Amino acid sequence: MTNLKRLWRRRKALTTAFIAAVGSFLVGVTLPIDLRSNQPEPPQTQVVAVSQSQVQKPNSNFNRLQQAIGQRVEFSQQAIAQLQENRFNSSLPSQFRGITLRQARLDPKHKAIALTFDDGPWPTTTTQILDILKKNKIKATFFWVGRYLQTHPELGKQVANAGHAIGNHSWNHNYYKYNEDGAAREIDRTTSLIEELTGVKTSMFRPPGGILNNGLAAYAEKKNYAVVMWSADSLDWRTTTQSLTENVMRQANAGGIVLMHDGGGNRSRTVEALPDIIDRLRKEGYKFVTVPELLQMEAQNLKQQETAKK
Ligand SMILES: [Zn+2]
Fold it and tell me: How many separate domains does the chain show?
């Protein structure tokens, strides 16, 4: 069984167990609430009496209640599954905290790769990229600029709700030198807004322009973020659709992290190239995962190697 399959099964098993546990809890919690809401100002004893008689003699009122409860539980289960999925996509193994990385170290036969999109959320192109990813059933990783997220909070929520992983790409996307206070403002403020809007507490930081020596990356490492660079640069911000595709294909490898942009300017070429990039990588045998998932695969590999040595 490949690592990816194992990871996928683990995700499924986790989600199922979680839903089962919380679902049964919710049935217990929502049942009395629904009964109460259908009784105008019911004293406590009356609720019990009514619910007992309804259980003994089912009637249409009770069926309606059952239906309402069923719908509510189903809705909650969906919400929980989504939350669980989001959490799984963004949890980062501890050994990658506080370091800078360019890709995951995987066995070359484990062809997993992570698509990443920087400088959003951005009108139109973020939505177009979300649509392409959804159509291809792919989870990707988005590194947001705080002030763009502040301008387009609904777009940000859409990305997070679709189950993609989220990283911090600073508040202003400047290339200045920062002292620690300045770096803290750029990074902390963005992380707070991401959490406030999406509930995701990100532990990934990508420095604007990939600059590692202007104070931002140092602060991020100190605060235990994984500083996530890339191994395949599409150069989509300055080249043609065809050559950005070739850039990705030439540099793609197992464990690779691909840099593209959904925001920060006109990204129509990225949108145009993406379906072809996905098709071609698939034909070469690649599976698409988020950056945290890619690092979870590396962590799992290491664990297996250690067990094998013992
Ligand atoms: Zn950027």
Answer: 2
Residues 149 and 60 in one domain: no
Output b/e per residue, 274-303; b: 16+ Cβ within 10 A: beebbeebeeeebbbbbbbbbbbbbbbbee
Same domain assignment for residues 110 and 83: no
- Catalytic: which of 110, 118, 119, 173? 118
The CATH number linked to 276 is 3.20.20.370
CA distance 276 to 260: 14
Distances (CA, A) of 211 to 81, 143, 190: 37, 15, 18
**C-alpha 119 – ligand 1 centre gap (Å):** 5
Do 86 and 107 lie in one domain? The reply is no
Q: Up-side HSE of residue 294: CA atoms within 13 Å toward CB?
A: 33
Q: Is 238 exposed, middle or buried (0-12, 13-18, 19+ CB in 10 A)?
A: exposed
CA of 97 to the centre of ligand 1 (A): 21
Q: What is the pLDDT of residues 37-92, one digit of tens each?
A: 333 333 343 333 344 444 444 567 778 888 878 777 776 777 666 555 555 556 89
Domain co-membership, 144 together with 241 = yes
> Is residue 17 over pLDDT 60?
no
**Hunting for tokens 């392409």 — which residue is that?**
132
What is the pTM (predicted TM-score) of this model? Answer: 0.74
Q: Which of 62, 90, 118 is the last residue of a domain?
A: 90
Task: Look up the domain containing 258 and give its range.
Answer: 94-307
Q: What contacts 245, CB < 8 A, 6 or more positions away?
A: 234, 273, 276, 277, 280
The protein residues having their C-beta less than 5 angstroms from ligand 1 (an ion) are: 118-119, 208
Say if residue 115 is in the same domain as residue 177.
yes
User: Residue 78 carries which DSSP code?
Assistant: H
